[in-house]
């Protein structure tokens, strides 16, 4: 859009033209004023000089009159002569001659040759009046020293006086003429200067005007080249339809500009997107949109457009769309969404899709009052098959089981694989008895032997069934109830079906007795944190650590987080536990930092559960960082996809909380990526810095093409969004190589180091050698 902005080159040229005009006019006017005032002064000087002649003649006449006994005042006239001669030389006010003229101001004469003439005149006036005075006194005049060097041989006093008077007149006239000549010369010079100045001003103005025209041409050409050579698609839409399309649009559609004009453009827009495009055209909003356009191969391309409302701009008078072809990115997202919704091994829906369908079913059943049931099926004896016959046999078995179950369930049911040997079945529109009958058939079908590697295998399963009751439960709760029922079925002996009853849950909690022990364990400081290094896959340098919670229970020994974290999440103890991990990790990092052990960009990552986010924790994080004196950019938080894509108030709270933390500089990672994302489109809206590819894909990538494809897609999606990708759970050199080839930026796993106590991490940071820590 910059091309539409007025160019500053043009503005500068206009300003320069105006300045040149002003400057040359000012100089010209000043010169004229100066010249006029000088001309006035010159006129005064010439007048006074010329007057001297008259005065000299009058003086002689008056002397003669007095000598003849008549009345006259030659002394006064002599005084005027002397005074005027002085003024002509040194400047001043020339006296008025009675009735003749006024007093005149005369400048001092600077020209040396004129000065010489005026000095001579002054001396002649002196001699004239001296001779006149003697004559009047009746004394001889021949012995008067002549100051002006006149050579006068005559002895008659009157003749002598006349000669001196004539000399005075001549000198005065000569001086007046010389002054007139210099004034004319000055005037001539002035005319030349004015003419030169005018011509120069005209020239400069012309040059600047040319520069202005060139700049305008360049700007237009620049805009044209931007629009025509860029891969961006530019459209200008006015009230009468399409006004302009860039050549790239015409190329894409395969038609000329004219066929796109007016209503023509809309024919290429997908019918479902027309309303949005029309709205942008008529109102300038939405300002960002994605719409589909048909190209010359009859293919729908997705264009992501930015809309600038320039209807008020007199040159554009329309809405400008800058669009980019994002079809590849959208296909990638769709593919990834499909993969994220389905289990790679069996092609069945996964837990995320199951949860989604269950949500819909529950919403529907609230209106139709039809029953909804969830069955969780855990195969008995699968682990033995896997261990004795190998992974491939295990995979094959799971595929056959999936086929069997698929044959039994109705098209309206959803069969899903939750991972491992766990399947789930969603039954819609059925009673309790019908549900039980269906899952019983699953058991019967399983009992028919399966042929695997030339061996016949008969399997059993434990099934938990939960029915949607009073309309109060969420989909998550219903799944948990089915889980509890399945646990009860296992406890009661294999090959059984149990239907969930509330007292089961209580009994389960009591048998586990974990809640109480976690509470006490926290008080007795049985919990501590281990750290697992994260490596830059290209350089091998340690760039961060993940903090992992550990529990050494006096009665149970070391309890894995996978056992106690779900319990803590269910009963709320995750809040104090999470606060403990955060405090420990932040303080530990600050202490390493004070020792100067941490490289630039080092980040300590802490796992968060969704429960913590919805409770609001950004203030707590900030206080914790401030207390330890640690920069927010050295702390990262890992959240799972499910925590932030939840719908409803809880999801919103979690997202707000992340946004707030991110704004304060804390980094955010999505953990276990690929195991259940409901909408990848949303990913773009979250404040994320890092994507952690789930361990199952990383470890499967070596054997399973599908896992490698998912990993590759996740990595390219991360990069497309400007994020980093980390592969977790790397155990072998083969896996590392695969991850490197797929473009992962960072890596983490037993291959580099196990989660370690802080002293060992410190040793690694000091020595820079982690190799001996692999076996730890
Ligand atoms: P996670 O966030 O996916 O953590 C990575 C898990 O993978 C850790 O298990 C780690 O020990 C393990 N691991 C790392 N490298 C390898 C490898 O090369 N091979 C294999 N097989 N495993 C590897 P861990 O410590 O048992 O933690 C399990 C889960 O418990 C974590 O999964 C995380 O979801 C949760 N968790 C652990 N600490 C915390 C915590 O402080 N807060 C919360 N909310 N959850 C935590
Ligand atoms: Ca993690
Ligand atoms: Ca993980």
Question: Any chance you could write out the topology, listing elements then pairs?
Answer:
Layout: H1 8-67, H2 74-90, E1 92-94, E2 104-106, H3 112-137, H4 157-229, E3 233-238, E4 241-245, H5 247-253, H6 257-260, H7 274-283, E5 288-294, E6 300-310, E7 318-325, H8 327-341, H9 351-368, E8 372-380, H10 382-389, H11 391-408, E9 414-419, E10 422-428, H12 432-447, E11 450-452, E12 455-457, E13 460-467, H13 475-491, E14 497-499, H14 502-512, H15 514-523, E15 527-536, E16 542-553, E17 557-559, H16 561-571, H17 574-594, E18 603-607, H18 610-614, H19 618-628, E19 635-640, H20 641-645, H21 648-663, E20 667-673, H22 680-683, E21 690-693, H23 695-700, H24 705-720, E22 724-727, H25 733-741, E23 746-747, H26 758-767
Parallel strand pairs: 13-14, 16-18, 18-19, 19-20, 20-21, 21-22, 22-23
Antiparallel strand pairs: 1-2, 3-4, 3-7, 5-6, 6-7, 8-10, 8-13, 9-10, 11-12, 15-16, 15-23, 16-17
The structure holds ligand C2E and calcium ion (2 copies).
């Amino acid at each position: 859009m910059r091309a539409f902005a007025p160019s500053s080159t043009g503005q500068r040229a206009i300003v320069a033209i105006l300045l040149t005009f002003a400057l040359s006019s000012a100089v010209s006017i000043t010169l004229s004023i100066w010249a006029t005032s000088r001309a006035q002064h010159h006129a005064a000087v010439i007048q006074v000089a010329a007057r001297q002649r008259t005065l000299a003649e009058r003086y002689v006449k008056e002397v003669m009159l007095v000598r003849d006994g008549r009345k006259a005042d030659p002394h006064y006239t002599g005084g005027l002569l002397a005074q005027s001669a002085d003024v002509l030389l040194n400047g001043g006010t020339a006296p008025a001659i009675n009735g003749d003229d006024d007093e005149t101001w005369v400048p001092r004469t600077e020209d040396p040759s004129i000065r010489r003439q005026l000095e001579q005149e002054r001396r002649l006036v002196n001699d004239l009046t001296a001779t006149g005075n003697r004559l009047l006194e009746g004394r001889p005049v021949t012995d008067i020293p002549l100051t002006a060097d006149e050579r006068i041989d005559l002895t008659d006093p009157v003749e002598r006086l006349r000669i001196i008077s004539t000399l005075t007149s001549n000198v005065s006239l000569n001086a007046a003429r010389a002054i007139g000549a210099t004034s004319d010369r000055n005037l001539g010079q002035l005319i030349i200067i004015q003419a030169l100045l005018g011509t120069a001003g005209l020239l400069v103005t012309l040059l600047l005007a040319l520069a202005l025209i060139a700049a305008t041409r360049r700007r237009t050409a620049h805009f044209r080249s931007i629009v025509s050579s860029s891969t961006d698609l530019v459209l200008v839409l006015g009230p009468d339809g399409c006004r302009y399309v860039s050549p790239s649009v015409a190329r894409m559609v395969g038609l000329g500009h004219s066929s796109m004009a007016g209503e023509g453009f809309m024919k290429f827009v997908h019918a479902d997107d027309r309303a949005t495009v029309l709205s942008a055209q008529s109102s300038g909003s939405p300002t960002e949109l994605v719409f589909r356009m048909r190209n010359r191969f009859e293919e729908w391309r997705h264009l992501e457009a930015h809309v600038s409302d320039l209807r008020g701009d007199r040159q554009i008078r329309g809405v400008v769309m800058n669009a980019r072809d994002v079809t590849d990115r959208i296909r990638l997202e769709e593919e990834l969404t499909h993969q994220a919704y389905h289990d790679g091994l069996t092609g069945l829906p996964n837990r995320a899709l199951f949860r989604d369908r269950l949500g819909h079913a529950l919403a529907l059943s609230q209106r139709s009052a039809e029953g909804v049931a969830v069955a969780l099926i855990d195969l008995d004896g699968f682990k033995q098959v896997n261990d004795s016959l190998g992974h491939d046999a295990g995979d094959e078995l799971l595929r056959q089981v999936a086929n069997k179950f698929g044959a039994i369930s109705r098209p309206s049911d959803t069969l899903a694989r939750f991972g491992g040997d766990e399947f789930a079945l969603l039954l819609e529109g059925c009673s309790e008895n019908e549900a039980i009958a269906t899952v019983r058939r699953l058991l019967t079908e399983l009992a028919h032997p399966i042929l695997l590697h030339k061996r016949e295998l008969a399997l059993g399963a434990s099934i938990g069934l939960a029915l949607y009751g009073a309309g109060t439960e969420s989909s998550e709760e219903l799944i948990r109830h089915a889980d509890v029922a399945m646990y009860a079925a296992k406890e009661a002996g294999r090959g059984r079906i149990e239907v969930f009853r509330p007292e089961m849950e209580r009994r389960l909690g009591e048998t586990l007795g974990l809640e109480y022990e976690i509470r006490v364990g926290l008080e007795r400081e049985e919990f501590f944190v281990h750290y697992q290094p994260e490596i830059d896959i290209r350089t091998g340098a340690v760039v961060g650590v993940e903090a992992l919670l550990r529990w050494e229970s006096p009665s149970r020994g070391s309890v894995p987080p996978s056992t106690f974290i779900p319990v803590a999440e269910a009963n709320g103890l995750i809040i104090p536990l999470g606060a403990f991990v955060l405090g420990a990790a932040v303080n530990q990092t600050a202490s390493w930092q004070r020792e100067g052990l941490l490289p630039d960009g080092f980040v300590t990552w802490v796992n968060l559960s969704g429960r913590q986010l919805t409770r609001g924790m950004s203030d707590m994080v900030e206080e914790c960082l401030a207390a330890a004196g640690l920069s927010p950019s050295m702390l990262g938080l890992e959240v799972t996809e499910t925590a932030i894509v939840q719908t409803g108030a809880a999801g919103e709270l979690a997202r707000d909380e992340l946004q707030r933390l991110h704004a304060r500089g804390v980094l955010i990672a999505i953990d276990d990526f690929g195991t259940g994302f409901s909408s990848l489109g949303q990913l773009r809206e979250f404040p994320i810095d890092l994507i952690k590819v789930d361990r199952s894909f990383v470890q499967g990538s070596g054997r399973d093409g599908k896992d490698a494809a998912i990993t590759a897609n996740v990595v390219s999606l991360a990069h497309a969004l400007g994020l980093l990708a980390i592969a977790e759970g790397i155990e072998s050199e083969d896996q590392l190589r695969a991850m490197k080839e797929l473009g992962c930026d960072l890596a983490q796993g037993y291959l580099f180091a196990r989660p370690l106590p802080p002293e060992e991490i410190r040793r690694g940071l000091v020595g820079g050698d982690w190799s001996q820590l692999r076996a730890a």
